[in-house]
């Protein structure tokens, strides 16, 4: 295991330890009854007891979040390239992306469910709404901050837009996209859980809603802990993916490829 991966794992473990310690301290200092807030030991025992169910639901939530992030990232990159190619599009595209970002998921998720049903696409579209604007702004900002000398050199050698896009714009956009992913990936997990809660699609969100309706407090808190752990892993995922890509010979830096 590399140093970067060790740091990521250590950060996740430390965050969980701090969360569990604060949890237990709150129970001890405020004398909270177990039927309202089970202790971390009891909750971890419940997680182990129902590990199969929780793992399946967490996998469904994670897969929906990953699919939504992929769609949002592709859309953001396409919009960023279009804005670079045709600068006149920046104002309308940014405006529409901002409007998309301000739509409340709580209000729009039931409408999406009515249109596309209770399947995967409901969660994917919720993630697209949450993530596209941030990823688009990060990608465009990164592309525009690339050294202009690279673009001038490419034009001097009569490189077409497609080649400039492949060797300059997209690598630069990916560097900014990684920054945006650190923000949007955890938010995407939250958006998927909320969409599952409202639509009933199998996942952690619907499990939490069902547990609340049945007053199954241990399962509700177990699902909450699993969701928190999934969010922490989601936050670390962009750095891990970038590190793996760099070890395989890819790069997010601008100017390392031949024009």
TrEMBL record:
Location of this chain's protein in the cell: Cell membrane
The way it spans or sits in the membrane comes to: Multi-pass membrane protein
- Domain (ABC transmembrane type-1): give its ranges: 58-242
Keywords attached to this Swiss-Prot or TrEMBL record, sorted alphabetically, are: Cell membrane, Membrane, Transmembrane, Transmembrane helix, Transport
Return the GO cellular component terms, semicolon-separated.
plasma membrane
What does the record list as GO biological process? transmembrane transport
In the UniProt record, does the keyword Membrane occur?
Answer: yes
Tree of life domain: Bacteria
> Do the record's keywords include Cell membrane?
yes
Q: Which residues cross the membrane?
A: 62-84, 96-114, 120-140, 173-198, 218-238
PROSITE patterns per the record?
ABC_TM1
To which protein family does this belong?
Belongs to the binding-protein-dependent transport system permease family.
Name by which UniProt lists this protein: ABC transporter permease
**Organism the protein comes from:** Mycolicibacterium vaccae ATCC 25954
């Amino acid at each position: 295991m590399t140093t970067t991966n060790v740091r990521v794992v250590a950060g996740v473990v430390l965050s969980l330890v701090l969360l569990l310690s604060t949890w237990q301290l709150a129970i001890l200092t405020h004398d909270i009854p177990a039927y309202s807030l089970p202790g971390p030991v009891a909750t971890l025992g419940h997680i182990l007891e129902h590990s199969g169910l929780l793992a399946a639901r967490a996998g469904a939530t994670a897969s929906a979040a990953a699919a939504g992030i992929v769609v949002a990232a592709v859309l953001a990159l396409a919009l960023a390239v279009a804005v670079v190619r045709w600068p006149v599009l920046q104002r309308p595209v940014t405006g529409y992306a901002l409007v998309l970002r301000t739509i409340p998921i709580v209000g729009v998720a039931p409408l999406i469910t009515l249109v596309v049903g209770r399947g995967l696409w409901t969660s994917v579209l919720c993630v697209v709404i949450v993530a596209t604007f941030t990823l688009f702004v990060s990608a465009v900002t990164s592309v525009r901050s690339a050294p202009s000398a690279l673009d001038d050199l490419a034009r001097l050698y009569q490189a077409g837009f497609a080649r400039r896009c492949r060797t300059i714009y997209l690598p630069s956009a990916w560097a900014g996209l990684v920054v945006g992913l650190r923000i949007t990936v955890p938010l995407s997990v939250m958006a998927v859980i909320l969409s599952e809660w409202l639509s009933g699609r199998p996942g952690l969100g619907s499990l939490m809603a069902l547990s609340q309706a049945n007053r199954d407090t241990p399962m509700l808190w177990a699902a909450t802990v699993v969701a928190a752990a999934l969010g922490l892993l989601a936050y670390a995922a962009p750095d891990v993916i970038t590190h793996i890509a760099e070890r395989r010979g890819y790069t997010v830096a601008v100017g390392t490829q031949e024009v």
